[in-house]
C-alpha cells in the first residue's frame, strides 16, 4: 500500500486550483471529494510514474495510457456534455458555482480493441499536399489547441499537458472546382 | 484460479451474491463499497489495480464478459443475473429491499 502524505495532497490541490482557475477549468467544489481524488492521482504517480486516471485501470505503459493521464483526452468532452469529467475531479463552470451533485458518467474511452485500431491514426487527415505549408501543425489532443511550429511545445500553453499529448495535423487542400 | 484468492469478502446481510470489480484508487468504487456497507449487505470485491499482471489479465477477461467497456465499478449480481455499471445509487439501494 502506498502512503501519500497530507502535505503532498495539499500541495497538488493548491497548485491545481491556482493553475486551473485562470484557464477556464474548475475543480470539483466538494473539497473532500477532490482531495481524495488527488491522493489517488499521487498514488498512481508513485505506482506508474505518471498521474493515470484514478477511475480507470492503467496498463502501466505510458504509451498505451497517454489518453488517460490526468487531465485525460476525454475531460473536456465530458465536462461539456455531463458537467463533470469521468472521475468528477473537474466540473463545468456552472457546477463549480452551484455545487450541484454530479452523477456517474458513462465511459467515453474507446474499448481496447478500438484504441489499438486507431492508434496508428494519430495524424489527423485533412489533405493530400501536406508540404504546401511551411510549418507542421500540432493539435493538443486534450484541449484542441493548434499551433504551427517545427515541434509541438513542451507544455500546452492552454491546458498544461506535455508534448507527447500533441498529434500532428495532416493538412489536405481540396482542389477547387 | 489465481486471482480468486485475492477476492475480499465484506460480511453483512446475505440477500444476493454481490461481486464488485473495483479499483482501490477509484472514488466511485469507494462510494459503492461504503453504500453497500451502509445497507449492511454482504459483498465480495476485487481491487483490480492491486493484482499482479497475470492475475489482472485473467480477471479482466472475466470482467469483460459482464461489462465489455471495463468501467469501474462493475457490480455483478448473482453471477450475471444483473450487472450494474457505475455508482448507480438507486439501483444499489434497491438491492437491499429486493427479496422478490
Ligand atoms: S480529467 Fe477526470 S476523468 Fe480525466 S483523468 Fe483526470 S480525474 Fe480522470
Strand-and-helix sequence of chain A, N→C? Answer: HEHHHEHHEEEE
Q: What's the number of structural domains of chain A?
A: 2
> In the CATH hierarchy, what is the superfamily of the largest domain in chain A?
Ferredoxin thioredoxin reductase catalytic beta subunit
Largest interface: A-B, 21 and 21 residues
Mean pLDDT of chain A: 87
Number of strands of chain A: 6
Secondary-structure map:
The complex is a heterodimer of chains A (177) and B (100).
Chain A: H1 6-21, E1 26-27, H2 31-48, H3 62-65, H4 75-82, E2 90-91, H5 93-98, H6 112-118, E3 124-125, E4 137-140, E5 146-148, E6 166-170
Parallel strand pairs in A: 3-6
Antiparallel strand pairs in A: 1-2, 4-5, 4-6
Helix pairs in contact in A: 1-2
Chain B: E1 8-10, E2 18-22, H1 27-38, E3 43-47, H2 53-66, E4 74-77, E5 82-85, H3 89-96
Parallel strand pairs in B: 2-3
Antiparallel strand pairs in B: 1-3, 2-4, 4-5
The structure holds iron/sulfur cluster (SF4).
Residues 37, 53, 55, 68, 70-72, 75, 85-87, 89-90 of chain A line the site of iron/sulfur cluster.
Task: Describe the protein's architecture and organization.
The complex is a heterodimer of chains A (177) and B (100). By secondary structure, chain A is of the alpha+beta class. Chain A is 33% helix and 10% strand. Chain A has helices at residues 6-21, 31-48, 62-65, 75-82, 93-98, 112-118; strands spanning 26-27, 90-91, 124-125, 137-140, 146-148, 166-170. The radius of gyration of chain A is 18 Å and the shape is globular. Chain B has a single domain (3-85), classed as Glutaredoxin. In chain B, 34% of the residues lie in helices and 21% in strands. Chain B has helices spanning 27-38, 53-66, 89-96; strands spanning 8-10, 18-22, 43-47, 74-77, 82-85. In chain B, helix 1 (27-38) links the parallel strand 2 and strand 3 (43-47). The radius of gyration of chain B is 13 Å and the shape is globular. At the A-B interface, helix 2 of A face helix 1 and helix 2 of B. Residues 37, 53, 55, 68, 70-72, 75, 85-87, 89-90 of chain A line the site of iron/sulfur cluster.
Amino acid at each position: 500500500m502506498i502512503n501519500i502524505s497530507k502535505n503532498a495532497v495539499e500541495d497538488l490541490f493548491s497548485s491545481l486550483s491556482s493553475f486551473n482557475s485562470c484557464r477556464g477549468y474548475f475543480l470539483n467544489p466538494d473539497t473532500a471529494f477532490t482531495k481524495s481524488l488527488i491522493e489517488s492521482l499521487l498514488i498512481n504517480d508513485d505506482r506508474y510514474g505518471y498521474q493515470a486516471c484514478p477511475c480507470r485501470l492503467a496498463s502501466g505503459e505510458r504509451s498505451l495510457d497517454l489518453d488517460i493521464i490526468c487531465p485525460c483526452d476525454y475531460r473536456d468532452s465530458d465536462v461539456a456534455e455531463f458537467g463533470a469529467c469521468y472521475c468528477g475531479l473537474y466540473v463545468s463552470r456552472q457546477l463549480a458555482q452551484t455545487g450541484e451533485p454530479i452523477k456517474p458518467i458513462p465511459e467515453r474511452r474507446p474499448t481496447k480493441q478500438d484504441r489499438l485500431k486507431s492508434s496508428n491514426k494519430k495524424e489527423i487527415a485533412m489533405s493530400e499536399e501536406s508540404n504546401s505549408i511551411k510549418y507542421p501543425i500540432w493539435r493538443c489532443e486534450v484541449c484542441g489547441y493548434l499551433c504551427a511550429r517545427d515541434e509541438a511545445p513542451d507544455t500546452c500553453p492552454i491546458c498544461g499537458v506535455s508534448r507527447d499529448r500533441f498529434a500532428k495535423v495532416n493538412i489536405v487542400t481540396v482542389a477547387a472546382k | 484460479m489465481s486471482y480468486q484468492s485475492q477476492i475480499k469478502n465484506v460480511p453483512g446481510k446475505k440477500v444476493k451474491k454481490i461481486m464488485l470489480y473495483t479499483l482501490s484508487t477509484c472514488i466511485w468504487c469507494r462510494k459503492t463499497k461504503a453504500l453497500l456497507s451502509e445497507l449492511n449487505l454482504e459483498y465480495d470485491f476485487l481491487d483490480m489495480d492491486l493484482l499482479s499482471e497475470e492475475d489482472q489479465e485473467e480477471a479482466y477477461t472475466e470482467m469483460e464478459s459482464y461489462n465489455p467497456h471495463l468501467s469501474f465499478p462493475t457490480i455483478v449480481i448473482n453471477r450475471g443475473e444483473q450487472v450494474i455499471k457505475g455508482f448507480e445509487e438507486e439501483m444499489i439501494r434497491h438491492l437491499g429491499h429486493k427479496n422478490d
